[in-house]
Specification:
379 residues; Neuraminidase; Quinoprot_gluc/sorb_DH_b-prop; Glucose/arabinose dehydrogenase, beta-propeller fold; signal; Glc/Sorbosone_DH
Length: 379
């Protein structure tokens, strides 16, 4: 018996709730007819999820709990060893990822909003690494702390994704009212950072030798990067950046590049005032794809499974505002067409999207009665 199945089985023994999934009516899309199958609706503001090798899920809840959820709907008691979080505004316990070598090392990674450990004011995004055991998390170590701590409860970013080479990308936000910091290299605000799984800094990071720059920075000029995925063919990082009123972006962040926020944007302030009169500034990168008006994008995946062959290689982007999934039809890296999936069929904001080892697609909604939804081909 593998360690993963031992851990999973013992934790699920603490199940709180089992919800019988009910198949909804078939939904016809351009290329597939599917059903939305609610596995559970008993999660409290879930934010992130990660599949274990067993097929069960680790799911974060914003208030600071980590649970194990089975595809039969069983939900564990809160797992021990989770760090203290600042559950305020957009902050809380956010993303979860498992190590590429989880089968041999059992490492799990959590991103969250952290108070100043020295007692100062403000909070920032932090990442903890810990081992998953039959009783919860042990050996927890904070491997990254965004600097500086800041007194604002918005724009923490927080997606975690591993590169094919084993680097850990952490996406961050500009902390809203500190948006100008996205154009500097001396804070983590509005950045994507790249570290090693133990928190050390790769020697080939773009600003390692730049005086005054934080060596963790991979790219900058971002607003609030809440989605990340690795392109299955190129191995490149793609990100989903939550814009203001208009200007949600898909980017392909390259080492050392500036993605323009806030000196160039396709969005405006929520009161319709101008952020910048420019959509492009020399020395900055244009978005690979963008939305006006915004759909409030969250996470995204490249679909690589066999259950939906006509979606193979497409980019599926979850949306908060529209409670739907945007399917971007790709030819190579070029977006050829966009299809809106499940509009009106979900009814709650879609916070996360993942592909399961079974090839089905899974959604999390971030309501107080948050749902784990399985998308399957209609029978």
């Amino acid at each position: 018996m593998t360690l993963q199945r031992t851990v999973t089985g013992m934790i699920i023994g603490l199940a709180l709730t089992t919800v019988t999934a009910a198949n909804a009516d078939p939904i016809v899309t351009e290329r597939h007819t599917v059903t939305l199958n609610t596995i559970t609706q008993e999660l409290n503001k879930p934010w992130g999820m990660a599949f274990l090798p067993s097929g069960d899920l680790l799911v974060t809840e914003k208030a600071g709990t980590l649970r194990l959820v089975s595809l039969t709907g069983s939900i564990s008691e809160p797992l021990a060893g989770v760090p203290a979080v600042v559950d305020s505004g957009q902050g809380g316990l956010l993303d979860v990822a498992i190590d590429p070598d989880f089968a041999t090392n059992s490492w799990v990674y959590l991103s969250y909003s952290e108070a100043d450990p020295n007692g100062g004011k403000g909070s920032s995004t932090a990442v903890m690494r810990a081992k998953l055991t039959p009783t919860g998390l042990t050996d927890g170590t904070v491997i990254f702390r965004a600097a500086p701590k800041y007194e604002r409860a918005a724009h923490f970013g927080s997606r975690l994704v591993f590169s094919p080479e084993g680097h850990l990308f952490i996406t961050l936000g500009d902390r809203f009212s500190a948006k100008d910091d996205a154009q500097t290299l001396d804070t983590h605000h509005g950045k994507v950072v790249r570290i090693m799984p133990d928190g050390s800094i790769p020697a080939d990071n773009p600003f390692v030798t730049t005086v005054g720059a934080l060596a963790e920075i991979w790219s900058y000029g971002h607003r609030n990067v809440q989605g990340a995925a690795i392109h299955p063919a190129t191995g490149e990082l793609w990100t989903a950046e939550h814009g203001p009123k208009g200007g949600d972006e898909i980017n392909i962040p390259a080492a050392g590049k500036n993605y323009g926020w806030p000196i160039a944007t396709y969005g405006v302030n929520y009161d319709d005032t101008i952020i910048s009169p420019l959509t492009h500034v020399d020395g900055t990168e244009q978005p690979h794809y963008y939305w006006v008006p915004s759909i409030a994008i969250s996470n995204m995946i490249f679909y690589t499974g066999d259950q939906f062959p006509a979606w193979h290689g497409d980019l599926l982007v979850a949306a908060l505002k529209g409670s739907h999934v945007a399917r971007l039809d790709l030819e190579g890296e070029r977006v050829m067409h966009e299809e809106i999936l499940f509009a009106g069929g979900i009814g709650q904001r879609v916070r996360d999207i993942e592909q399961g080892p079974d090839g089905y697609i899974y959604l999390l909604t971030d309501d107080r009665s948050g749902r784990l939804i399985q998308i399957k081909p209609a029978e």
